[in-house]
Amino acid sequence: MLPPIANNFVAGETPAEALAHTREYNEHGIGVILNLLGEHYDARAEAAADRDAYLQLIEDIAAEDLQACISVKPSQIGLDVDPEYFETNLTAIVEHATLRDVFVWVDMEDHTTTDTTIDAFEPLAREHGTVGLCLQANLQRTREDLERLVDVPGKLRLVKGAYDEPADISYSRKERVNAEYRELLRYAFEHRESGVAVGSHDPAMIEHAQELHERHGTDFEIQMLMGVRESAQIDLAEDCTVWQYAPYGDRWLSYFYRRVMERKENALFAARAVLGRS
Ligand code: FAD
């Protein structure tokens, strides 16, 4: 069972708990992006197990007509095993989800995976339009990737980027990443009519997106992580489309550790909870 403190960031260990979490947030008008925790598998059996878990989750979402979709990590469905195997698994998931009217997001991992991920995503998006891709502002290449993909059906999620990347291909200064993020948002809103997802908790970036929406009329959604600025998620959902990215599954420890370590307040909160329980 999940310890209470991890409950803040992880929607349970089982699909049933993740679906219960989804129902709860749907009541607040917030859609839920479900991610089964798992990455960097080097065996086909692990990748196949998570692919099958997503296929079942798609059935569960469709059966209840929940406001929910899924987000898949490439290395979770075979990218580290063999790029073709990853493409085959992603295609199986997207085709099944399309039949059930469930949207599929593809997370973006570190820069060594970017080309393969985009190459697998683009034809699926052009064929089905029921799939979205994450693009990272901390990579210098992303402006060109966005120009390549700006007219794809489906959605594009812009994030600042979570991976430490080599200095010669990335922007490392926070101010530079923020400037690039603003610029990518501007370009996306100028060139797309819909399907822009702002994957950020940053109030300044959300305000920027709202201004761009007013100027260009582009439909957009705000995406935030479970456990981060949750009251803002509920407030924003009054006027905007808000989706919450909610991970679940028994591989929660390293995800939880990342969330706690990325912010002093989270670490203090975790420490207080642990001390309070001891
Ligand atoms: P930051 O730049 O970290 O912070 C800016 C401001 O936001 C802060 O000053 C504060 O006001 C507010 N803020 C940020 N965090 C908190 C907090 N914990 N509590 C309160 N306020 C806070 N990265 C990838 O590389 N690949 C992915 O596929 C990917 N998918 C993502 C999906 C979603 C839905 C989200 C939200 C993020 C995803 N990320 C992904 C992570 C992303 O790249 C960033 O690392 C992460 O979102 C932190 O950047 P930020 O823009 O939220 O805010």
From TrEMBL:
Transmembrane segments: none annotated. It catalyses: L-proline + a quinone = (S)-1-pyrroline-5-carboxylate + a quinol + H(+). Keywords: FAD, Flavoprotein, Nucleotide-binding, Oxidoreductase, Proline metabolism. Residues 19-270 form the Proline dehydrogenase domain. Gene3D superfamilies: 3.20.20.220. Coiled coil: none annotated. Its cofactor is FAD. One of its GO terms (molecular function) is proline dehydrogenase activity. This is proline dehydrogenase. It comes from Natranaeroarchaeum sulfidigenes. The gene is putA2.
